[in-house]
TrEMBL record:
It comes from Leersia perrieri. It comes from the Eukaryota. This is Wall-associated receptor kinase galacturonan-binding domain-containing protein. The keyword Signal applies. One of its GO terms (cellular component) is membrane. Residues 1-24 form the signal peptide. The lineage of its organism: Eukaryota, Viridiplantae, Streptophyta, Embryophyta, Tracheophyta.
Amino acid sequence: MPSLLCRRQLFLLLLLLLVAASHGDSSGDTYDTSMCLPESTCGNISIRYPFYFYNKTKDINGSNNSYCGYPGLAIDCDDGKLTLQLNGADKYKVNNISYGSITNVSLVDRDFVDYSSGCTKVDHNVTTPPASWLFFPDMSVEYLVFFLGCSFMNLPRKNTDPITCRFIGLAGQSYVIPKDQVLPGNWSQFCNQIFEVPVLKYQPVDPNSDAWRNGGYGQVLRQGFQLSWNDTGRPPNCTQCEESKGRCGFSQNREFLACLCPNGRVHSVNCSASDTEWERELIGGRMPSNSGVMLTMA
């Protein structure tokens, strides 16, 4: 009787042959399974689908640079530091990802991380890309408005003083005010720049305090903000795919392309029973029953 070691070697050999045959299918209905992110960590943060590594793009049904994950959830892990790109070239440091019925992502602008003290300058609005399924949850996020380089006839907030910070290239006075305290008005005609950024709720905010006006608002910015993932807007095909244990593949144009099954097969909508049986039987230590080979690991 062959030894247990020989059986394991035979099992691995047959498994490699099966995978090679699967990926050698000339019909074009296979994909490179390495593009689908298994659960892993970057630093001490757990990462898994629907996030995907931005550099793990492959071909799906002739569409180059496609990815296994959701639009707007491309991440990068560089030397144990995790970042997520929201819009354009703006990348944000990921402080934490919590998974559950609602997936939450805690982010902070990388520019703010470098300011340990002093005057932190904001130079862009924080927005989410279209079709990203990311949103700012009202229960945990509020906003600061930066009025930079202004000459007001009237103030955007009653009884408020400008910050003491002076920014290069901007003449006039600047203010940092919670959005819910800004008075109605067309303030853009009085300022060189106006930006709105999200921050965590319940942070100490007093626009009239000396600490705030001397750059203390930067401490609130460095706490970051939160985004939540809303999957209710998924394409119907994507919903069916995930219910069949598949993962959704998208193009760079954010279009749903195909359902990517655990065994390396590509389907238009959902995985078949044999696609998921392959995974279950492999975990159980057997070759899939539809492969024509049965090998039980004794």
